[in-house]
Amino acid sequence: AAAAAAAPQRLPFSRVTVEDLAFFRRTLPGRTITDPDLVQSSNEDWLKSVRGSSEVLLRPQTTQEVSQILSYCNSRNLAVNPQGGNTGLVGGSVPVHDEIILSTSLMNNILSFDNISGILTCQAGCVLENLTLYLEEREHIMPLDLGAKGSCQVGGNVATNAGGLRLLRYGSLHGTVLGLEVVLADGQVLDCLSTLRKDNTGYDLKQLFIGSEGTLGVITAVSILCPRKPKSVNVVFLGCKTFDQLLKTFQLCKGMLGEILSAFEFLDSECMRLLNTHLKLPNPISDCPFYIVIETSGSDSNHDSQKLHNFLEEAMTSLLVTDGTVATEVSKVKALWSMRERVTEALTHDGFTYKYDVSLPVERIYQLVTDMRRHLGKRARSVVGYGHVGDGNLHLNITSAAKDPALLASIEPFVYEWTARFHGSISAEHGLGLKKRNYIYYSKSRPAVALMGNIKTLLDPKGILNPYKTLPDDLRRT
Ligand code: FAD
Ligand code: 2HG
Ligand code: ZN
């Protein structure tokens, strides 16, 4: 089972029988996996921090198959764990006990793309990077981008309401997802796969499933609004002495780059140390306490570079930034981006990692890192801060040589209380999954959580979909 302290008791679901397996094999011939070696990697999360003990991995290809499986599991009272690319960071993507794993990996067909509207419709198991490559050939891009792009799937992105590196420009999936097809717990197919920008015919039901982390239904297809591929992209990597200067640079940047600004991200010198040490990525500029990654995306390279030049001149002469480098060429753009995208990977080599993903008023975000450092002293190996400054979203990560319950007790609830004091969110973009479910009350009122519970009961009366996740234990019906 999962991490001892967090592992909830198994609920009284049925156990998989030989008759159940026979049904699955008839429904999904050759795609009902029970070889423990093959099921193993789907039982463990990307961070290798939680592990389930499922003995069955199902790989449907069609919505109809998903519907048949869920209808059967619901009638048999068998628990199901929907799984996409298994890159989730809160323990939501793997079973806690013996839940059946329902993987969308083989549901990877693109259904349609409208070149005029930019609307893409595809199955949930399409890998984000493959969609990006498909769209780039058609002069478009996905409205989201994240470090896990090579493995995460669009269904998983929608199920977690993933934010990522472009949210500042293109907004959240609550705005860019136009339609969803979802299979409900009892096997009913809910077709909300609209491809309309505007549709006010009553409640916008698809929104319920965006960020529902596999607890309300299995997303089988997505239609999403994709922006045009920008003709001109520049990336700037800058260094600052203080976080206050970094914030002033953000303000200056918004004013001077305006509509071409597409990302404003940061990392601290501790992140840089981990990139240097564990991934051998050299610092592209001189050593500074803070680093900024700014991306511009526009339609006219002369116009964009003129604006960028003016901004950089102002940032340098006003001494907001101490050093910097600019990239326009694709390979250098990628290299600068990897300094930000690969921090998560670098951390995995530093030891056991405790992850926090909070939203706060932007001027507060780094204060949490310095307060945590002071609070923990020498007990932690590294305390690092990075994230999506433009969205007021900090990633605070703390490492130690091994799993350390005493260290954890010093971090939590300190970090949650700190966040609640400034009316922040204890999960800005990764969701609650298994690890954060019981901390929901730091960010949501009791009536709001109770209403979530009622919605869960309405859509999944037997609670078979991703049990033990997202909703706090005190709501769970046994
Ligand atoms: P999984 O990990 O397989 O599943 C995640 C959750 O969604 C689980 O609860 C699962 O049950 C559910 N789920 C998956 N597919 C479906 C479906 N079809 N229907 C219903 N439920 C489903 N997140 C961000 O928000 N921003 C980032 O910048 C970001 N960067 C990352 C970088 C790295 C290196 C890594 C490892 C992770 C990162 N993540 C980020 C976290 C993660 O949430 C995203 O990677 C991604 O959205 C998860 O997609 P997935 O297909 O891997 O889903
Ligand atoms: C990012 O922005 C991801 O890089 C991962 O959301 C953050 O690992 C983390 O804490
Ligand atoms: Zn992030």
UniProtKB/TrEMBL annotation:
This is D-2-hydroxyglutarate dehydrogenase, mitochondrial. The keyword Transcription does not apply. PANTHER family: D-2-HYDROXYGLUTARATE DEHYDROGENASE, MITOCHONDRIAL. GO terms for cellular component: mitochondrion. It is found in: Mitochondrion. Its cofactor is FAD. Its main location: mitochondrion. GO terms for biological process: malate metabolic process. It comes from the Eukaryota. Residues 49-229 form the FAD-binding PCMH-type domain. Pfam families: FAD-oxidase_C, FAD_binding_4. GO terms for molecular function: (R)-2-hydroxyglutarate dehydrogenase activity; FAD binding; metal ion binding. Its EC number is 1.1.99.39. Belongs to the FAD-binding oxidoreductase/transferase type 4 family. Catalyzes the oxidation of D-2-hydroxyglutarate (D-2-HG) to alpha-ketoglutarate. Also catalyzes the oxidation of other D-2-hydroxyacids, such as D-malate (D-MAL) and D-lactate (D-LAC). Exhibits high activities towards D-2-HG and D-MAL but a very weak activity towards D-LAC. Keywords: FAD, Flavoprotein, Metal-binding, Mitochondrion, Oxidoreductase, Transit peptide, Zinc. It catalyses: (R)-malate + A = oxaloacetate + AH2.
